[in-house]
Amino acid sequence: MNTPPSPNQNHLLAALPSAEFERIAPHLELVAMPLGEVLYESGGQLHHAYFPTTAIVSLHYVMENGASSEIAGVGNEGVLGISLFMGGNTTPSRAIVQTAGHGFRLKARSLLEEFNRAGPLMRLLLRYTQALITQVSQTAVCNRHHSVEQQLCRWLLLTLDRLPSRELTMTQELIASMLGVRREGITEAAGNLQRTGLISYRRGHITVLDRSGLESHVCECYAVVKQEFDRLLCDVRNRHDFS
């Protein structure tokens, strides 16, 4: 029996002290996030922040010629729409659902009212933003200096960290789009991982058979991002007093 979606499935919402959570809870709206849905476009005005619970959203930077690649992913550990509370209101990236699921959205006004109290929500969101900046920066370095196979391992591990199972529904074409590489490169890299028994790939379904093996193949970038998230957000599993 499926568990009904709950705001507590998002680690940031679950970390809020009760008083702060109760103020925003009436304004949280459960939304379905189907695969491929664009939550906001590059340069568009943001009206909501999104707190994914079971969905994963990919942030893409889109070039003038339409080419794009992923600069970060956001799942149940985070929030979409940091430009709302950072003061920019728009962003040059596109947010598109990578893994279908659910999340909760909050109108910009409600988010800013609580953020401007300069209390636990503000401090929590700023720490998350620092961790997200690390992910974006490390992705840029990884895409420049590491092999497609290492990039694929990094992407698989970061995605697994946001999922309750070892199975991903994702075509090679979509992964190539995420990483900004040729599909042939993903085909070769996935084939290598499958031959070594680390993954099983069949018709758009990837099953990770040996996570520790993936971790031994991945470049340093995965650990850098994971350690920074753990350092900054190690206390977000349950509600705490951030004062």
Automatic annotation (TrEMBL):
Annotated keywords: DNA-binding, Transcription, Transcription regulation
Keyword Transcription part of the UniProt annotation: yes
Single GO molecular function: DNA-binding transcription factor activity
Gene Ontology CC annotation, any one: cytosol
InterPro entries associated with the record: cNMP-bd_dom, cNMP-bd_dom_sf, Env_Response_Regulators, HTH_CRP, RmlC-like_jellyroll, WH-like_DNA-bd_sf, WH_DNA-bd_sf
Record keyword Magnesium present: no
SMART domains, A to Z: cNMP, HTH_CRP
Highest taxon listed in the record's lineage: Bacteria
Domain HTH crp-type: start-end pairs: 146-212
Signal peptide (residue range): none
PANTHER family, per database record: CRP FAMILY TRANSCRIPTIONAL REGULATORY PROTEIN, HTH-TYPE TRANSCRIPTIONAL REGULATOR ARCR
Protein name: Crp/Fnr family transcriptional regulator
Source organism: Sulfurimicrobium lacus
